[in-house]
Amino acid sequence: MARSKDKTPRTPKEPGRLKQMWQVFQMTRRYDSNIVLFMILAFLIPVAISLLLAFVFSPGNVVTIVLWVIAGALGGLLAMLIILGRRAEKAAYSQIEGQPGAVGAVLRSSLKRGWVGSEMPVAVNGKTQDAVYRAVGRGGVVLISEGPRTRTARMLDEERRMVTRLGGSIAVTVISVGPDADAVPLHKLARRLTRIKPTLTKAEVLAVNNRLSSMTKKLPIPKGVDPMKARPQRGN
């Protein structure tokens, strides 16, 4: 009787870069019907500009015109990728916007360099699931409310007083993410943090974050949702 050979299960290969981009494009197109138009314009505009410059500065020189066109095409491809990335991020976060933990997902995956944040909130209302998150960076301490301002105002005030007691003169910025008309959209939250005027050094950012983290109570609540694993909503 022949011995059966043990076959070690092969780990599934990760999709290639082009396949990943195609999957991102397909996901984005389901939630953004204008993505194709924006990507076409992003490609054609640099090509048109390069052609115009070629005929202005190098009329009649075929080789130079071809080089200008190639440069415009490369610029167009880069612009297409930038547009796809931004629209894909917006589409991904639109799937989880309004859900408990959505702000935590942004703080976990989209914070820029120099900022420290946690996907776990520093305060939460167990009944309404409204929460307050905290991020520390060059711009100081930022408290981010998740939910209507009328329900998160008290939690924000308590957290602001705690930060003021521990941090002294550290700048505290309050940002609201929720249904209010002037609230910051979820997909713009990370960029909103980068526009805050720097007031701390890198060493001070770590010191302030460590001090605040040591005084924060751990809350028995779930982590933020993952925008890339969120289930698409079914149409009516």
From TrEMBL:
InterPro entries: DUF4191
Region (Disordered): 217-236
Key words, A-Z: Membrane, Transmembrane, Transmembrane helix
Pfam families documented for this protein: DUF4191 (PF13829)
TM region positions: 35-57, 63-84
Designated name of the protein: DUF4191 domain-containing protein
Lineage of origin: Bacteria, Bacillati, Actinomycetota, Actinomycetes, Micrococcales
